[in-house]
Amino acid sequence: MARYWFRQKKFGYGATPNSWQGWTLTIVSSLAVFGVILSAPMIRDNPLRVAWIVLGLSVNVIVTVAVSRRKTEGGWRWRNGRDD
Asked: Is residue 48 included in any domain, yes or no?
């Protein structure tokens, strides 16, 4: 039996962390984005660094969403609170 890191949300689209692995993924991804935001003033005059930052953020988001979707019990779909 697979252990799920996230559970489906009761309202809306997506998932919520359900285990320490899910919380760890969420916190690490958030810290990576926050680190990029803090470094933004240092990169404003260098287009190559900006491109690397955008690429890094894109990879971070894609990996986080892919792992979250794969590790969510019941999958992702729109829910309105009346679903089982």
From this structure: yes
